[in-house]
Design a protein that fits this description.
By secondary structure, the chain is mainly alpha-helical. The protein contains 7 helices and no strands. Pfam families: MiaE (PF06175).
């Protein structure tokens, strides 16, 4: 799925179900960070009209997802906890190349963003197919579709703006790296954990 080499063990959902408040809090903050990432990309690339237009849509959708998760938290009588560190995302960030042209840096940031969206999409799929709470199963099914669209948007723009980068080759490097770190995750009640 989405080119990912390692899928999440469905038993991860058992861990999630042991602490729904934690997964929902973590998920809410993931949506906030995704919106912030899109806004940051807009700020750094304001001259790229098509990119800005699409990223505004993504930022708005991510904020809507944050609102949806927050509403779900409240409806379940839970509370939104403090922001959590996302060690998975931090490891991906370290893999991002920091040299090259401005367009090379943009391409790399777009691939980084695509990778996060791809894994989030895959995790939402696992949740939608395995969680016992039918409301949450439908919720994650709907979000899975949205995340897949974000993944393809980021990957498409990486291809569009690549000057000196073989995007397909670099994407394969991202997939290989992600495979090497994701084996350490899937043990916590967090979206990427």
């Amino acid at each position: 799925m989405l080119g990912l080499k390692l899928i999440t063990d469905p038993r991860w959902v058992n861990i999630v179900e042991s602490n729904i408040e934690e997964i929902l809090t973590d998920h809410a903050w993931c949506e906030q960070k995704a919106a912030s990432n899109a806004i940051s990309l807009i700020t750094q690339n304001s001259e790229k009209e098509e990119l800005v237009t699409e990223l505004m849509i993504i930022a708005r959708e991510e904020l809507e997802h944050l609102q949806m998760v927050h509403d779900l938290i409240k409806s379940k009588g839970l509370s939104l906890g403090r922001e959590r560190k996302d060690h998975y995302v931090n490891e991906l960030f370290k893999f991002m190349k920091k040299d090259g042209s401005r367009n090379d840096a943009l391409c790399e940031r777009l691939l980084f963003s695509a990778m996060i969206e791809a894994r989030s999409c895959e995790r939402f799929k696992v949740l939608s197919e395995n969680i016992k709470d039918t409301e949450l199963a439908k919720f994650y099914r709907d979000l899975m579709i949205s995340e897949a669209g974000h993944y393809t948007t980021f990957l498409g723009f990486a291809r569009k703006y690549a000057d000196n980068v073989d995007v397909d080759k670099r994407w394969q490097e991202w997939i290989d790296f992600e495979t090497s770190i994701i084996i350490n995750y899937g043990k916590n009640e967090t979206i990427h954990g």
